[in-house]
Amino acid sequence: MTILVTGATGNVGRNVVELLLAAGAPVRATSRNPKTAELPAGVDVRAGDLDDPGSFGDALSGVEKLFLFPNPSGVAGFLDLARASGVRQLVLLSSAAVSDPGETANPIGLMHLAVEQAAQDSGLTWTVLRPASFASNALQWAPAIRERGEVRVPYAESTVSPIHERDIAAVAVQVLLSDGHEGATYELTGPESMTQRRQVELIAAAIGRPVTVVDLVGDAARAQLEEQYGAFGVPGLVDSVLGTYAASVGTAAPLTDTVARVTGRPPTAFADWAVEHRTAFIAA
């Protein structure tokens, strides 16, 4: 039973690969450039580009299950090829943005919703994972923390429930290796709601030195997000992110017990994630 992991060099996909290997499952992974994938020994790495479904002909041979990275470009063609190649089951990495009440105006939610719909129409047995904010999103602050000991944060008092990328992967692996998850949609969060300011404080504690937070609101927040997301060229993306941040100030981020229910262990605290990744925030 070969399991194919797409997006295998990403934050979640790489952890899916490692956890499947640890469980003794036969793992195949795809990358646009297998020579630079740097995946663990024992992984069968093949070329594959989700923008080009035809590039997966070789990679899908003998595969029964797959972990699918959310790429709306070519997803329907890829899933048609997967079914024709003998794939029976897929686990889709989606996003909590799909369950946002305003998802119809949210380009992130719309993108993931389109991939979810393709998965559900594929004829394969499917399970959807909708993680909240990734703890690894905090890595965007690493250069500023290393260089200046200061971060500029749009709406620093906005709240998130950050989830460790390994916890998302652990749920995916449990679904791939056990029964009873068919047709399920799992909302995934970390164990606690916190402000972005608190995330920075926990990173500062992990590295043992203070980090100043500059709270950006209004036009200053928009300018920062334009710099961060403008290059993606997605209409409405900055407005959507800005609105989400502003709306969450003073409210608690949603929490679920899904990680614990599916894996049998509690999700990882952000403080522990920060300690685990502390070297990313320390100047060489």
From TrEMBL:
Coiled coil: none annotated. Pfam families: NAD_binding_10. InterPro entries: Ergot_Alk_Oxidoreductase, NAD(P)-bd_dom, NAD(P)-bd_dom_sf. Residues 7-177 form the NAD(P)-binding domain. Gene3D superfamilies: NAD(P)-binding Rossmann-like Domain. It comes from the Bacteria. This is Nucleotide-diphosphate-sugar epimerase. It comes from Streptomyces spinoverrucosus.
